[in-house]
Amino acid sequence: MAEYVCELTDDYPDVPFGSDDYSGTVERRERIVRCRDCRYAEPMPLSFSDLLICAYLDDMSVEPEGFCAWGEKRNGN
User: Fold this and answer.
1) End-to-end CA distance of the chain
2) For 22, 48, 55, 66, which has the most beta carbons within 10 A of its beta carbon?
3) What local confidence, expressed as pLDDT, does residue 77 receive?
């Protein structure tokens, strides 16, 4: 099953804080790409752990179940 991150955005920033007028609220959905399925993630060399290395984040170690805003699905997945 696909996972999504939902963000509610306000198209009308002039609506007073605390107002019950949600007519300008829009939902934006983005599909989550887990690190294990991301084109930037590679197995950590010489490691016995499940950690991955993210090329996008300057070779930072990441968890396979993690995700970020820049993840892109690998070809073939």
Assistant:
1) 14
2) 66
3) 54
| Cα maximum dimension of the chain | 56
Q: Which two tokens stand for residue 31?
A: 């599909």
Cβ atoms 52, 39 nearer than 8 A: no
Give the C-alpha separation, 61 to 70, whole Å: 15
CA dihedral angle for residue 51, residue 53, residue 57, residue 63, rounded to 10 degrees: -20
pLDDT tens string 15-70: 555 555 555 556 667 788 999 999 999 998 887 788 999 999 998 999 999 998 88
Give the dihedral of Cα atoms 30, 3, 62, 77; nearest 10 deg: -90
Please tell me what DSSP assigns to residue 54. E
